[in-house]
Amino acid sequence: MNTDIDQLDQIVNHKPKLEKGEQLYRAGEKFTSVYAIRSGLVKVVSIQGSGDEIIHGFYLPGDVVGFDGIAQAQYAMTAIAVSHTSLCEIPYSELSHLAEKVPKLNTHLYEIMSRKINDSYYQAQLLAIKSAEERLAGFLWHMMERFRVRGYIYTEFDLPILHREVANYLGLTPETVSRLLTKMHKSGVLTWKKKHISIHDIPALEILAGFNKEGSCSQACAKGL
Amino acid sequence: MNTDIDQLDQIVNHKPKLEKGEQLYRAGEKFTSVYAIRSGLVKVVSIQGSGDEIIHGFYLPGDVVGFDGIAQAQYAMTAIAVSHTSLCEIPYSELSHLAEKVPKLNTHLYEIMSRKINDSYYQAQLLAIKSAEERLAGFLWHMMERFRVRGYIYTEFDLPILHREVANYLGLTPETVSRLLTKMHKSGVLTWKKKHISIHDIPALEILAGFNKEGSCSQACAKGL
DNA sequence: CGTGAGGTTGACTTCGGTCAACGTTTGTGG
DNA sequence: CCACAAACGTTGACCGAAGTCAACCTCACG
Hints:
homodimer; 225 residues; 8 helices; 11 strands; DNA-binding
């Protein structure tokens, strides 16, 4: 077991930190590696001809980005550091070579990718859910949950992303996000000031996210991610 | 090469056909197999406590469903046959066992899963795109493209799904879908009558889907799926 | 300081959802 | 094979949630 980890360690390159706004990889570039995030925050986007971007996901420490590149041997998306970020580069050729000798690694990779598939199902669900309030509440609840399962403090955390970016991710406008945050703040559910989030009333947040009316399924589903 | 295929053939169970409406697997069930679709159409949904479903994807012959189950050793979604469907069951334990001996199989599986990840990125993009018209046009264009890359006739094809289901998938209402289809029909872009689609004006469809204003990226990206 | 990016708030508009009535197709049983 | 029912599809009138536009505020940073 430990030797497996050791072998993995040998192929990992510890990349220097990325500054805010720097690109990790660009859509269309040759696919070479996946990256494990050690600290910071990365957003994965696709960039339209008009220049604006569509945000497909935010990735926290412990997440792995770059799997979008496997299918076509080139990255399908662009990954950008949202804050100062340090990461590990894992060259794919060496990874798959190693995986041939360590079946457990394959199993693990399948799990990661399967989880990503379920993740995007969850996002699709967020977007298909009607109201803006449910989307935003659902998004914030999901972020909270991600901190929780990682064993971090989850009622208070930093989220160094702009309202504009959340709006983009949820298919809303910054104005709507702002209005909803004001509303949630006034009703004592949570506060988001200066890139810091404090959750005050988790049950209320879950109600806003629409968990109650859908029964336990949605919440349980989301929790699994 | 051929022997690899032979080995794969040995672990595949050729399931009898599924009737319309029958479930292939249910969310929460123990994960055992993935399924390759031979003919017909399968939808993958999550079912809410309220009883209604959220449709996450439609799968055509040649697609493989069931990867949602890997992450947690149980299916995260429910798969339902939309029309009479025949498929191959591929037991996952035997698949991963075989993959240990045939590295190429792993590579292939990674590609399939990576493609699925990109697929759901594309759906998220559809949902995040503002207008109902762009969503519907984008959806229809994408279906057409899927027939095209499979080498089928792609300006005429059967799509045995209800308006209600497309609406659900796109986060719209059946009424809106109906109105838009009427509009597209009148303007000579395409016709969808009796579960049969005829595309008359592909460039017009692409404009409706918003490909022009986003430059080549979105279209190229979607094509890769 | 001043400047510019981001956030907030308000007035107005619009797209698409809702509700309801009606038309059409499908499938079933007599 | 027809008749009926139920599900699906279409169309219209209306309404509300969220987008747009604009003005103003706040804060970080040079």
